[in-house]
Amino acid sequence: MPLQVRRVITGHDANGQAIVMIDEIAKNVFSGRPGANATNVWTTQEFPVNNDGTSDEGQRKAGTTLENGTIFRIIEFAPGLAARNHRTDSIDYIVVIKGEINMELDVKDAPVVELKVLRSPGTEEFTSIKFFKGRGFGAGREYRLGEIPNIIPPGGTGTTPQGGGQQDRISLVSMETSNSSLHPDVRPRAPETAPVFIGNDETLKLRVFIDKSVVEVFVNGKQALGVRVYPSRDDSIGVSLLSKGQDTELKSAVAWQMRGIY
């Protein structure tokens, strides 16, 4: 099924009364590459913006960005679409309406990287996914008596080098839902936390599935966590990424919308 987006544009009539100028299923659907369909809901080409006139600015031809302008664009990514890296002079705000997020990050020396999903515009609600690099115990422990399991692959030293390095230390992934809902009947839960080994030559790969009431994260194909969440706001659909302490390089980010099974 092709991308279908209802576009409602308001304006004013000759008497200054507010009216609906456009109410349609967007016709300007285009594809920049196979598997990625998009439509521009609206665009601007100057600042301050001139809202006079009756032109349909959603029909303006635009590339990835518009100089001195803005683009309100909705994109549908097909499952399995490869990531595309690009660098622009724009500030991009990404909202995942429904589906899956794939991210690849070079954590470098950042001790904590936090991904917030189902985030409201003012951060009143969000579900937090945190990666703590090298914050677990050294390897070689057994999962008995509360010890960390031995998940270092063959060839690892199982020890932390002298001098406080991070080689062969377990990292931790955590999901926190204490801010996931403003509903008074939703009670906070303790974070879900699990160990994961990320080698020094590996980037962090997060695969996140979101279905409004369920959030699941898969880390480098080695560890998985899932939580139930109950957002109370309809606008809790945003995503943000924060690196704490040091810089992290976002190498790629891809979001897909998942179709229903019914």
Describe this structure in words.
The chain has 262 residues and is mainly beta. The chain folds into 2 domains: 1-80, no CATH class; 93-262, Jelly Rolls (Sandwich), CATH 2.60.120. Helices cover 0% and strands 40% of the residues. The protein has strands spanning 6-12, 18-25, 29-33, 36-44, 70-77, 99-106, 112-119, 127-132, 171-176, 192-196, 204-210, 214-219, 223-228, 238-244, 249-256. The strands form 4 sheets. A 5-stranded antiparallel β-sheet has the order 13-12-11-6-15, with no helix packed on it. A hairpin with a 3-residue loop joins strand 12 (214-219) and strand 13 (223-228). It is globular and about 65 Å long. It starts with 5 loop residues before the first strand and ends in a 6-residue tail after the last strand.
List keywords for this structure.
2 domains; 40% strand; mainly beta; 262 residues; Jelly Rolls; 5-stranded antiparallel sheet; 15 strands
Task: Note the topology.
Blueprint lengths: L5 E7 L5 E8 L3 E5 L2 E9 L25 E8 L21 E8 L5 E8 L7 E6 L38 E6 L15 E5 L7 E7 L3 E6 L3 E6 L9 E7 L4 E8 L6
Antiparallel strand pairs: 1-2, 3-4, 4-5, 6-11, 6-15, 7-8, 7-14, 8-9, 9-10, 11-12, 12-13
How many domains?
A: 2
Please mark out the parts with pLDDT under 50 across 5 or more consecutive residues, or reply none.
140-152, 157-167
Give the % helix. Answer: under 10%
CATH class of the largest domain: Mainly Beta
